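Changelog entry: the VOC family protein record was regenerated in this release. Current contents:
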Amino acid sequence: MTKNSTRLDHVVLWVADPVAAAAFYETAVGLEPIGLAEYAEGEVSFPSVRVNEETILDLAPHSLATRMRMLPGSADSAGHPVNHVCLALPADAFDTLRARLEEHGVPVSGIDPGLSGARGHATRSFYFRDPDGNVFEARHYD
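Regenerated structure tokens:
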């Protein structure tokens, strides 16, 4: 990991139930929960899930919105998911994720070929929603 270059560190997702959200991301998506026990014990404000060694998704409860004071209007963002978050995966992990989501009854879109992204043109991509309505795209590049 390079600590002195620009990287995506985390994305905060508003969720109704952080424990249920963490369970979804662990079982249906295959991401490792972080801080779940600490959240359950009231030691931290929210749990997270690890996307990779550099990036996590924070699972913030709607009730945390009133404490969002870093910018005017920040509290108003609760319940408004981002348009989508894109996960770039190796081809085998892409296929595994799609099968895993379908196995857990998560609706997935059709396969979209040739979309552009941070690494150029992706070979395939598809979309799915988490239980809170946050939209994810999964893709892989050759």
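Strands lie at 10-15, 32-34, 48-50, 56-61, 85-88, 112-113, 116-117, 120-121, 124-129, 135-140.
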